[in-house]
Amino acid sequence: MKRIIVTGLIALSGVAHAQQVQKVSDPVDWVNPLMGTDSQGDLSNGNTYPAIGRPWGMNLWTPQTGNNGDGWQYTYSAHKIKGFKQTHQPSPWMNDYGQFSLMPVTGKLVYKQEERASWFSHKAETVKPYYYSVYLADHDVTTEITPTERAAIFRFTFPKTDSAFIVLDAFDKESYVKIIPSENKIVGYSTRYSRGPIKNFKNYFVIVFDKPFSTVNTWNENGLERGKTEMHSKHAGAVVGFSITARGEKVHARVASSFISEEQALLNLKELKQDDFATVEKQGRDIWNTTLGRLQVEGGTIDQVRTFYSSLYRTLFFPHKLYEKDATGNIVHYSPYTGKVHAGYMFAGTGFWDTFRALYPFLNLVYPSINKEMQEGLLNDYKEGGFLPEWSSPGYADIMVGNNSASVVADAYIKGLRGYDINKLYEALLHGANNEGPVSAVGRKGVAYYNKLGYVPYNVGINENAARTLEYAYDDFTIYQLAKALNRPKEEIDLYAQRCQNYRNLFDPETRLMRGKNEDGKFQAPFNPLKWGDAFTEGNSWHYTWSVFHDINGLMGLMGGKDKFVGMLDSVFVMPPTFDDSYYGGVIHEIREMQIANMGQYAHGNQPIQHMLYLYNYAGQPWKTQYWVREAMKRLYKATPDGYCGDEDNGQTSAWYVFSAMGFYPVCPATDQYVLGAPLFKKITLKQENGKSFVIAAPANNAENRYVQGAKLNGVGYTKNWISHWDIQKGGSMEVNMSARPQTTKGTQEKDFPYSFSTDKK
């Protein structure tokens, strides 16, 4: 049972305030894994699925309401479940890899997904990060799942029947199953994956039941093979039967998998030890409470606490572990690049275009040890594949733009991560920055133009060229930062200092916006700043113009100074949500999500503009950041099935919320600064891996008091519009005085503004 302490309804100035949560004892009980699951292809409310697993676990499990191969594998509005699926899916757009499913049926022996599907209700569904249960009405069976990182226990509760079955579906593209009746076991593999190229890919699985089989059958795309125990086909599966002598009798299945071998899958099964279902469930609950408990919130509404921990939960899955432990306990991994097994760490399932912005900085702040493993994994990506990935799923996926692995590597080192070969990773950054990769999304597409002209031209057949230019320029800044930290040669440092200013080449003084530019140096024409795509990626010029994370002061100067800069920021919210979708030939879901949010041209449902709310701090008007950040948290997030305003995207959109609720945000990863906003709770305690705690206390916080009147850092008055990573690392407190009225004198001096490259160079 969830234990919470709340204060009553308090009337203040005639306003009724919602119940306040004073203390959270078990944060996992506040998580709603169904947040964001009420989505579809043309409108995303998160595009999530209930991910049942352990933090960063190699395997996740989810009920499957969609057909095999459907990226929308679970949607809240669905009425039937077709299986319980092992999944590694980062998003419906990327789809899945290495999947297989189990499904109980009773009565008639059926195995096809349409025939085995059963009606279910959310009223008979329990969803926790570490546990899932649902009643399957058509089969009168309750299915329960509790996982470890690479294994899981299923518990099926059957009615009395001599016709109880478990259907194993190993999916298509080539799969294999073998039933071993003497051991109550099924082994096999799935080869299905959605993004490539990858080599020699198999997900080997082993399933051990605690009851003997009464019947055994295999099947493939051509039909059922009764009594046959082995099947290798395009689409293979198995059906095993049980004799259930009393209603309520349970069948347990212990399941594990491996990307390495069947023998390794059996080793991974040992994660379960000899523990029973309840023990594994409790272990999962304890791990989630410990992991989520690194952030302790107090003094928020019930809805705010639910949204906070539901968002925090989403930051703790991707990238997931692709590595395993061999018989001697050594860390090993299957390589999607070589198709072989190698020593060391590897992770998969994330796109840096999304996650460099907030997810990786969040890991560096709250969970640095897991990101140290991820950095070691990136080293192995480079050694085995020749480049760093930009979207791994699990190898090089040819999607999105940018070379943002540079930010992911540099931010980790700048924030203090050590104990891995940073010089080799720096070599990887230089290689990626100066070469095109094996696919257009790896390395830098158009790099020859970029290095020669200072931009990727609009008219040379390279799509989303302005977006590439802006992201390459920022990525060059992160290389510059890392080069300085590593004491690289001066000419090398100076080169990337120069290249990070390439954003200036696309600034159009006539419109005060970023604009594609042709190879001859002339701007593209005609130019519609409301046109999505074309020169930009899933956005328009009003969204991408702010993508100068490292030099906002330089951008401000191009726009004509602070007043004009603030006017441009204000215009984002004043403009109507009109758009030009001609590049796509129709309204993509990101456009629709901006249109219906009623925040003008602000498109928080996609990543490029998410940092923009914090930019008022650079122009001496931090109260506008405070207003809009709190407005975005209030309007655009809720722990409900429609609780996001666009794609959640591997923890990025959730990390924005968690950072913002703490009261700050990493506008420019690869610096040590977080730009201040407005904390959401009366108190948040960050329990750091170094054993020290940092407390953000805002005792006067409530729905009306969204403005910061003043602040103290460790008891001393604090006027800056940013806080250092190192101040947080030392432990201590920031006390924030909140009010319903904006404070228009605090944070207005240039000495209080956050970092900008051009200011720093001066």
From TrEMBL:
Residues 748-762 have a biased composition (Basic and acidic residues). Residues 1-18 form the signal peptide. Its cofactor is Ca(2+). One of its GO terms (cellular component) is cytosol. One of its GO terms (biological process) is glycoprotein catabolic process. GO terms for molecular function: carbohydrate binding; peptide-N4-(N-acetyl-beta-glucosaminyl)asparagine amidase activity. This is Alpha-1 2-mannosidase. It comes from Filimonas zeae.
